[in-house]
Amino acid sequence: MTGVVARLEKTAITPAGVPRQRFWLEHRSRQEEDGHPREVQVRLAVVLVGRKAELIQGLKEGQNVRVTGFLSRAGYKGEARDRVQLIAETLVPLD
Amino acid sequence: MTGVVARLEKTAITPAGVPRQRFWLEHRSRQEEDGHPREVQVRLAVVLVGRKAELIQGLKEGQNVRVTGFLSRAGYKGEARDRVQLIAETLVPLD
Description:
Two copies of one chain form a homodimer.
Chain A: E1 2-8, E2 12-13, E3 19-33, E4 36-49, E5 64-73, E6 84-93
Parallel strand pairs in A: 4-6
Antiparallel strand pairs in A: 1-3, 1-5, 2-3, 3-4, 5-6
């Protein structure tokens, strides 16, 4: 998914000592829905775990990036169960 | 995305008279996170708009399906802004 880095958060360290870096990605594109063009917006939490957290170095809010990875629920209790996040496998700055 | 139809909702009709059918998809898979295997779960709202709503016919809760489409925010106000849904382009039963 491509998008703009909307908000960078502080790096967190899990109880097992693993760094977890989260940022918010805003994606906009035009898609076709039932035969009609439509503007699409998505705001998605992207999480970088362990060594991947280093990919964030030098990244700035407002920068365009491309992220690949897999979707995962944000947690296992309460409303986090239904919240979706992207666990990043690659992160490439586009500007 | 593949998954199980967790909950089928009633078909809604928009003010413009367009049918919108929503169901909840539960996906489980094993992925690699920072070099370690990990079980991944995602619970995602899937929305079928207009003629696509017909794809739901005969579909039952508990059935395995494959869905393709694009991610979109669920709404433009409040917490819906940060909720992600999948606008379906194809829906194929797997059993």
